[in-house]
Structure formats: C-alpha cells, structure tokens
Fold Allophanate hydrolase.
Amino acid sequence: MLTNLPFTIDALHQAYRQGVSADQVIRESLTRLSNIADEGIYLYVASDSQLSKAVADLGPFDLTLKPLWGIPFAVKDNIDAVDMPTTAACKAFSYIARQDAYVVSLLKQAGAILIGKTNLDQFATGLVGLRTPYPAPKNAIDAKLVPGGSSSGSAVAVAHGQVCFSLGTDTAGSGRIPAALNNIVGLKPTLGSISSRGVIPACRSLDTVSILALTVENAAQVYACCRYYDQQDPFSKPYHGPAKQNIPVNFTVAVPDSESLILDEPAQKKAYEQALNYWRQKGAKLVEIDFKPFYEVSKLLYEGPWVAERLAALAPFMAKHRSALYPVTCEIIESAHKFSASDAFNAYYRLRALSRQIASILTKIDVICVPSMPGLVYKSDIEVDPIGPNSRLGTYTNFVNLLDLCAIAIPGKTRSDGYPSSITLIAQNGCDAFIHALAADYHANQGDYLGATSHKIPVPDRLTTTTNIMQMTSNHEIAIAVVGAHMTNLPLNHQLTDKGGRFLTSAQTDSHYRLYQLGNRPGLIRDDDGQIIDLEVWALPKNKIGDLIAQIPSPLSIGSITLSDKQQVKGFLCEPHGLKDSRDITHFGGWRAFCQAESL
C-alpha cells in the first residue's frame, strides 16, 4: 500500500485512518531513501532509537491536537535538532545540538517526525547546491543540472517523495531556487514570522526558515504550524496577516517590462508566457513595471556591504579554521573586508531610497509574478565559472528579503524541452495567505507531476458543505458560520483567530435568507422569499464562545443557520428590529461581493 503512495499530508493521514502505522510510514521513508542513488542528500539520518522514540511520543491519532501527526520531514543541516549533529556542511564546525531549534520543536509538537539533516551549500552561502565538502546532492529531475542551493538536500529529498516536507533557509533564494530546479514548492515567508532561534545565521537580519513541499497546500499547512512569535528571538515578529484567503474576483499582477525581463532560454521564455496567459484567463490585470530598481537592490546583497553580515557570523570560527571552508565560500565571505562602515551606511541609505521607490509600485498592484530564475544551470557551467551562474540564479530572488517581501516558488507546466518550469509570486509582507491561494490554484491547474515522482498533482481538497461539518470539529470545538467582517481577511477576523479559531470551509446558506447593510457590517435574517448567501464556517473552542458573544453588538445575535446542503450550524443572525433604515443587499450574494462592488 505504501510503496506507491504519494507522500502528501492528506494521503498519509488517509493511510493512517485505514490502519497504517507511523512505524510503517517511517520504514517506507527510509526504504525510499535507500532506493535513491544519491549519497549526498543527507548528512545525518536519525537512528532507529531516535525514530522509535519519535513514533512512541506521537500518542493516539488526533489531528486536532497534532495536525502533522506521523508526517516525515527533514531539516537543513544549519538548523538544530536535539541530539543530532549540526555541521552547516563544515566538519570542523560540527557540534551536537542540545535542543531543537524553535521551529523544529513546534513541528514535533504538531506530530511531525524528523528523519534527518540534509546537505547544503556550506554555511548557506550559494544557490547552486554544489559548495559542500561532502558528496553534493543530485538534482532529482536530471543529474546534469545543479540541485540548487543552498537548501539542496532538503529540496531533493522532497522531490523524490522520500519525505513529505522539509525545512530550508532562504536569505537570497536558498529555498526558492532548489525548489524551482527540482519541480517542487518553495515557500519563503514574511521575515520574522518563523523563528530563527537555533538556526546558524548567514545574514542574520535577512535570514528566514523556508518550507519545501510537494504541494502548496502542504507548505501552507506546515507554515500554519510554525508561524509563531518567539520572544527569545530578537528578529521574530508577530504575524498579523490572515491565516487563509480566497482569490479575489479582480486582482493586479505586476510583471517585468520587456526591457528589464531577463530570460536565458527560449523554453524558459515560452513557459513564462504560458504562466502569464493563465493569469489573464483568471481575469487578472497584468501591469508591466520597470524591474531595474529591484535588480539594484539585489546587487546590494552580494556586491555590497551586506556580505559583512556573513563575516560577522563566522569571523571567530574563520580565525581558527579558515582552511576548513569551501574555497568559493571562503572567497565570498572574506570579500567583506573591502567594505568600510561608511560603505555600510551609504548602502543602507540607497536601500531606503530604492525601497521607497518600489513601495510606490507595490501600492498599485496585488502581486508580482516573475520566472523563478532566468534559466537552468548545469554542473558543467559551474566547472567553468563557479560564481557567475550562481549569481544569475539569484536574479529574481536576491532582492526579496532586503525589501521585506514574502514569496513562493511554484512548478508550472513542463517546458517544451522536458525540464520543469517554475514561477515565483511575490507580495508585501503579511500577504502570505494571498499568494498561497494564487499559488495553489496555479499549481493545481498548471503543474504536471509531484517533484520527480510519477504522481500527478492532486486536485486540491477544497472543503464543501457536503462534508459533515460536525466531523470537521473536535469535541472541544463548535462550528460558527460568519457572513460579514469576521470572514477571512476582513477587519474582525482577528476576533476568531485570537481565540484559537480555525477556518473550516467556504459555504452558502440555503435559499431562504436575506442580507442587509447595517453601517459597516451586515445583518442576516431568515426569509422564505430570500436567496443563497455566501458565508464561511469556522471552528471555535467551546470555552471561547462566551468571549465572542460578548463582542457581538445589538441587533446581531447567535442563532441556527441552515446551509445549502441542509446542515445546520450556529452563526450570526440579525434581530428584525435592527433592520429599520437598513439597505437590502441580498442581490449581491454576500458581504464580500458587496464590499468589492462598493469599494468598501
């Protein structure tokens, strides 16, 4: 049963429901690793005793308490995992971690099982995946290609379907580039939304943990489990974006104009054009922008004084162990010596000026869509020039963290030459849920296979009200239907999320309701001469219901709402006396559609 099972969260959890054990899944993961002809993926594989303990610690199958129950994952070997070595791909640097990195501890608490530590470009410096003194991982699609870095092993393990997801890091593209080269998803979150405590720094002010997965849905599920503020990490920030977001009817996509678009191959150009056509078909408005300011920001990262952050992180170690560094890595880090303190301030001032210029562009658009890279890079290219092709790979990635943006790399249709294509969606910080929604739609409709496996992209499991909502909630939760400002990405949604609420599904009432505008919120009433109204169903802890009711102003109340499939849930209703002088907006079909039409 497990041999041909795609390692996605949904598929594995379904297998568990059918009686498969966590121990069987872990053994299958190790079998898959042994069947891959690549000794460069892992630098450390968990021992039998470590894996047995992890399985024993799971407890009973309960996705409410542990949403990643029994899911195998890997972490890049610059991220600490207790009782495992951390090397950052440098033997002289190696130590045994005394505790988990905060992000690893959160994933274990969510039920994920750590398989091991993956190879990388030494000290996370590089985008090719070959800068390691150990055997380098092989690209999962074609061994002639570079695997991409610096999270090379993490990407290759996922692409082969050996683990469900992995952690990388992404300072300048180290998660997005290997994802693109191995036909998987690379999620680069808003800076500070995932703690970096327990992660070896590269450029500490720009570092973030990244998530690599076979599907966007899986990457987003993992992100939800580790997106927590960490008071002990000075770079951690509370995440204020929505947990989930739907694709709006109208949205604007910015793309590089013809003069600033950089593409190296005809097949890459054609694949990118196909991606843009997809967004046009979705109803998006495409706007060309001058990308030269973004490229200038990129140059500040490696051609400017920010490289000194890498030296700051490693200077004490390099003073004693310089010869232990990979030659190209050492050359890059030591280039920091040519910059002065005044250079650093001047570069910072220039970044601020460019950021202001770019901010004026971002306010007019919703998302940027770029190729994940200008073109493919082969191992033979690196043999001739170890730095040039690496820099080229960072064309569309290097600027993202300097500008404090979020991004996600997504596979598209296979290129005309048989190689994978990939685009990257970029948006302002906190807009992660928005680009994840777009990415999931794109991947489901444009992607071909999961990584290097033979499994087709699964149709996203979009919950509908034909699913028994009672089965979607735990014994400690109650389903609540919301029709207005409490919906995803609307002003009062935080009143649900702050209380531990979680999104279940978008749904509709039956055809016996009417909707009214009561100032800046709607009022829903039952009316035999009504129509279907859009809503969302959320799960809220039962011990928080009282707190929510206390925040509901008159004439709103909580009552029973009948959904389109005749299920009944508790939800927001309006007392009839509150409809005096209100506006009937039933014909809009829902509050969100009304707000969009009225530009509220």
Summary: Residues 341-362 form the longest helix (22 residues).
